[in-house]
Amino acid sequence: MRLDKYLAQADVGTRSEVKKMIRCGRVLLNGVPAKKPEQKITKEDIIIADGKEIHFSQYRYFMLNKPAGVVSATMDKNDTTVVELIDDAHSKNLFPVGRLDKDTEGLLLMTNDGALAHELLSPRKHVEKTYFVRVHGKVTEEDSAQFAQGMDIGDEKLTKPASLTDIRYTGEDTELYITITEGRYHQIKRMFARVGKPVVYLKRIAMGSLRLDETLTPGAYRELTEEEIFSLKNRNN
Ligand code: URA
Questions:
Q1: Residue nearest to atom 7 of ligand 1 (CA)
Q2: C-alpha dist (Å) from residue 143 to 51, 105, 122, 148, 204
Q3: Is 143 a catalytic residue?
Q4: How far is CA 220 from CA 12, 105, 156, 168, in A?
Q5: Among the options 76, 101, 103, 173, which is catalytic?
Q6: pTM for the full model?
Q7: 116 closest CA partner among 154, 68, 62
């Protein structure tokens, strides 16, 4: 691959920016300043730009704090999609790992790594997903017990055990965290509807080992760190 293309794909800068960097001697190829943007490189070459070694992976991983009003799809006729929230340069081939409802906010992993997405979404893997929820009405201990046992929400099978934690009453509503290991359609809303407490706000805060970075405002995103990618791939939960 050409050096300038490699650097642009590794997000060092735009194609014209990296060309300039090369011409200014800011890019080292195996320890010596690279001479030409069109120079060909191979996997064995060590490339350093502005003092930082550049690693290129064909896979990209982003966490998005999904805002309400945006759909978890790659294309939609009527609504803005989560892919459209990611900058053009990155968005190629990215797709959301699973779906959040249009009115749900929070953690959505966006990647082009189909194998990892498959692992995280496989029903057999029981990946834990935690949500902050506000429901109308008072969630009781009996409700918690029902969630823990598994519930009939009109599907063929009962839901898998779900845990409710940090239950807090706020006037007529209850705020709490719920952890589920499945990803059925409208699952949390249907579970709370079953106990007569409609969901008024829902935000995903964790998926497997990945936690939403609370510094991301709704609609903002960032690339996962190496550690976050490693933990997701080597998960033991
Ligand atoms: N459960 C729901 O009801 N909605 C979501 O978006 C996610 C889980």
A1: 100
A2: 57, 24, 27, 9, 21
A3: no
A4: 20, 12, 38, 28
A5: 101
A6: 0.83
A7: 62
